[in-house]
Amino acid sequence: MSTKPPQSSLFQVYLRLRPPMSPHNDDNERFIAVEAPQASEDEQEDYAPAPTHITLQPPNDTRKRAIEKFGFTKVFEERATQLNVFQDTGMESIVRGVLKEGRDGLVATLGVTGSGKSHTILGSKSERGITQMALDVIFQSIGMARTNKSLTISPMILASLATSDHSEAQLFSAQSFLDAVYGEPNAGRSSRAPTPLSPSRANTPSTVRSPEPLSPQKRSPVKHQHQSSYPVSFPTRGDSGYPCGDETYTPIDWSGKPSATPSRVQSTKIFSPGYSTPTPFTRSKPLENRFTKPRFSVFKEPAPALLFPRRQPRERAVTSPRLPDVGHLTIDLSPNSEYVVLVSMYEVYNDRIFDLLSPSIVASQGNAMSRGNAHKDRRRPLLFKSTEGSPNRKLVAGLRKIACSSYEEALAILDVGLTERKVTGTGANSVSSRSHGFFCLEVKKMVTKRHGETSWTGHTLTVVDLAGSERARTAKTAGATLAEAGKINESLMYLGQCLQMQSNLQDGIKTALVPYRQCKLTELLFSSSFPSSNQMSRGQYPQKAIMIVTADPLGDYNATSQILRYSALAREVTVPRVPSLAGSIVSATSERNQSTSGRVSLDDGLAEELERAMAEIARLTKDCHNFAVRLAEEEMARSEAEIKLQAAEDRCVMIEQEVREECWADMDEQMEKERKRWQAAWDEQIGRNDELVDKKVELVSRGFNIYEDPEPSANERIEDLENENEQLRRRLAAMEREMSSQSPTRKPRAKHAPSSPKGAINRLGRGSEIDNAIQRVNQLNITDGMFSVPSPVPKLASPGKKLRKISTRKWDLAPENEI
Ligand SMILES: Nc1ncnc2c1ncn2[C@@H]1O[C@H](COP(=O)(O)OP(=O)(O)OP(=O)(O)O)[C@@H](O)[C@H]1O
């Protein structure tokens, strides 16, 4: 079983076994046995070969499981130190690739929860992890090559770095960033994530300092209060020359002289609504002009651009672990070169990418982020995409990148990012990472071109602390934590599929391409492994990558065997041969035959039959063995299917939860809309009422002006009266006609006859009435003089009196309905 990684290998895979948490922890049975390395003949005698294979011994339960043997590039046993791991995994060559050979590097840890991934990557209180050691090697190597030993990252350097960055990043100097994070005293917040030096990490197994295991009472569901002790002296405002705080800055030109006309760097960055002011150092447009016309301006850095929940400034600067020492691993770089290290950090949580150095601010929580599992994740996810400056290669766009000039600064940034990482306490690990953490160390080298123009080239070392796979039953997770675990297991399953493709390639099985686009995690891990031929021709080579698989030999057998199956470079299954009953009978018989030979001679027929039986038994035994192997394979397939089912179930739970959350969000939104609508209507009504009251008050304050109809003029009165007169005449005529029609036999009375005797009038019935009416009408031939404007004190009978009389008559004569 060869484990030499072939040319097609994407990852070198190492296995690291975790020491027991307590020396007396012998409750669980050890199920991993490290095979003694076989020294090859051509190897020198004084060279002790490292083990490469392990055997996984299934527990003695009723399920007769096969023994599996796995091969790795190298196996680190429990006693291996952090330095052993750093050196023997070839970290130095990976760092060299980044610094000198123009190759990206990737180191990732994979393992069951609690198996020691974070310990390997980030170290403990007493020992540094791979990340810190790599940073140390990088800064020591750069320091030796640097012309200017006390380099401070000036705004000019930042601006030129921003220009050469293709990832639409927001660039800050470490000093201004740390100033923003720790600027205000007494405004701190508690840290939840494990920092390499946090007390939660002080609980180390017996091989390290802490002798006591973590008792259940001491276990806390979240990380402890942030207590970093990096010897970082935090800058005061403006001491770096970098714009910050309330000071104003004079625009300067590329040569460093003050510029007459301030002009803002035109940024291509589009900011989310959460960021009210743009960051000054993002890539600007047009790209080529930024250096050929080296003119930019420095502005006061607007405070909201560096929004960050404020933390307590560190009160004491205890020395961080400087061990293991990696001074001997320094890499020779070309002298008189200028380098800057950009640190960025993000996590993949629920298949979405979140920047760990730019958390969102939740106003209602007093600048604290809603990041507990119980809260909604309000952070803005970032995209992994091709950008304008990098059309052929996908990048995490819009990250915050912090330019660090020293190891201490880089550690302090790392510390800030780690406190933002999702972690929680589970039944399997009191400080369990709930996301895949990516720590990117980008080393930029300044290149001066022929005409004095400068630009930056660089490559990245990405250190990945993967979240641990876990079984819900073991980890005793529920609710959101269970849903997280579902997502973690799913992404690890995709990662496993990609790694299995690698071992298939090694075995010469040419299957489909590595399916790395299935989820964000595999995309991020593998996309630099397959540069296009176009990229290769431009000097971009596949990344150098190593995977450190961690395993606890006393931990969960099923989960560990699953991870090992995914990740091992080689695998062999053996079924333990159980001595069969038939075999023992046969051998016993043959022995007896041999012992009695010479004394009793069996007849030939019996001997032949016995031989046939033995052959049959041998065939059956072989069949039986084959079946057992197949059964073992089937069992493995079944356990894989079970894991997939579990992942699918977890996914269902998560989808349900997401749908619920979406519904709630929708309902909240609707309610908010409705509330706003009602509020607007209410405000409008109140406004109207106020207006009305104001008007009334104004009216009262002005006094009432009573409106009176104007007196009719004399002509109008005459006209009215004439109309009335005319009406009456017509009425009269009508009445006369009526009367004449009542007694057609009688002669109509002479029109101008002298007044008739009383008896005649009475006979006519209404004759006297008509006469009266005629008389009255005649009286209405009133002269114009009657309506001359009355004098205030009338001497004669006033026209008013006459009018009153007329109106009385009108009443008398008018038909009933008009009245
Ligand atoms: N090689 C080691 N030497 C000393 N202590 C170790 C080692 N590996 C792990 N530990 C300790 O074991 C505990 C669990 O380790 P760690 O937190 O690194 O697990 P993990 O795999 O990262 O878990 P998760 O996936 O849940 O985050 C820690 O207290 C850590 O200090």
Automatic annotation (TrEMBL):
Task: Spell out where the chain crosses the membrane.
Answer: none
- One GO MF term, please? ATP hydrolysis activity
**Sequence segments annotated as region (Disordered):** 185-287, 735-768, 787-819
* One Gene Ontology cellular component annotation held by this UniProt entry: microtubule
Entry keywords, A to Z: ATP-binding, Coiled coil, Microtubule, Motor protein, Nucleotide-binding
Q: Which residues form a coiled coil?
A: 603-658
Q: Which residues form the signal peptide?
A: none
* Comp. bias regions, Polar residues: 188-209, 258-282
Entry's InterPro entries?
Kinesin-like_fam (IPR027640), Kinesin_motor_dom (IPR001752), Kinesin_motor_dom_sf (IPR036961), P-loop_NTPase (IPR027417)
> Which SMART domains would you find in this protein's record?
KISc
Describe the location of the Kinesin motor domain by residue ranges. Answer: 10-573
Per UniProt, where does ATP bind? 111-118
- A Pfam family that the UniProt record links to this protein: Kinesin
- Give an example GO biological process: microtubule-based movement
| Family stated for the protein in its record | Belongs to the TRAFAC class myosin-kinesin ATPase superfamily. Kinesin family.
Q: What is this protein called?
A: Kinesin motor domain-containing protein
The upper taxonomy is: Eukaryota, Fungi, Dikarya, Ascomycota, Pezizomycotina
